[in-house]
Amino acid sequence: MVKTAVILGAGLGSRLKDRTTDIPKGFITIGNKPLIEQSVSKLLKAGIEKILIGTGHASNYYDKLAQNYPGTVSCVRNERYRETGSMYTLYNMKDYIDADFLLLESDLLYDQVGLTVLQEMKNPDVVLASGRTNSKDEVFIETNPKGNLIKMSKDSNELKNIFGELVGITKISYSTFHKMCRFAQEKFIDKPKLDYEYALVGVTVSTSILVKKIEDYIWCEIDDETHLRRAENVIFPRLKEQI
Fold first, then answer.
1. CA separation for the pair 94, 99 (Å, rounded)
2. How far is the CA of 208 from the CAs of 61, 141, 143, in angstroms?
3. What's the chain's Rg over C-alpha atoms?
4. Nearest residue to 151 (alpha-carbon basis) of 198, 118, 187, 193
5. CB neighbour class for 233 (10 Å; exposed up to 12, middle 13-18, buried from 19)
6. Could you give the CA distance from residue 89 to residue 60 in angstroms, rounded to a whole number?
7. How many helices (H) and strands (E) does the chain have?
8. Which of 28, 29, 165, 176 is the most exposed place for a label (fewest CB within 10 A)?
9. For residues 56 and 11, what is the distance between their CA atoms, to the nearest angstrom?
10. Helical segments of 95-157, H only
């Protein structure tokens, strides 16, 4: 069982327009509680003792949140958040991450069971996947016959098979994290907006990363208004007892 979680929360959330002009996506409220607070509560319930948040846009909101969890939640600001992607935000935390961890995106509304499943698995590197959601903007996952990660893409035609959809919750070992950092470091000059998913796939040449699918997993990400309506009208009613 890992004790550390890392949340990626630096992005501008520009597709949500006015909703995220002054706040980070993680502070969008569903069911009277911001997404980030729901996630922190679930992580603590799952046995997590240390939470690092990679911040950028409107980082003061996360700084204030961290004050409510002294010794547990801390923030690491990506000063280049406007010009970089999620992998740089993760890379920017390399001096603060010292153990295996759960990696989460900040704009998720999700079922507690996903954390429980990852925590109970002995595999050091595991990507959580779901069945088809038809939610638009999905990231599809290709695996080999052993169920290990091969490729991820938003274009299903680029994949030989579609095993599931990326949820945005991943267990990453300390050694794999450093492989991801080395892989990304060589790419940042040409691809500063590199996503962490690209680095995950990049290290599969030397590392087996299992994909664990929960077919009917209840979750959603919130990138735009369509996602937000789905979160409020479809996903939240199924999860509200966990809020």
1. 10
2. 37, 14, 11
3. 17
4. 198
5. exposed
6. 16
7. 8, 13
8. 29
9. 7
10. 113-120
Task: pLDDT band for 243, please (50, 70, 90 cuts).
Answer: low
Amino acid type, 15 = R
Token reading at 240: 């509200």
Residue 212, strand partner residues: 128
State which amino acid sits at residue 237. Answer: P
Residue recorded with tokens 């501008």: 12
> Please, where are the H alpha helices in the chain?
35-45, 59-67, 86-91, 113-120, 174-185, 196-202, 225-230, 236-239
In sequence order, the 6+-apart residues with CB closer than 8 A to the CB of 186 are none
Which residue, chain included where needed, has tokens 């980070």?
24
DSSP state of 53: E
The tens digit of pLDDT for each residue in 50-95 reads 999 999 999 999 999 999 999 999 999 999 999 999 999 999 999 9
d(CA 208, CA 69): 35
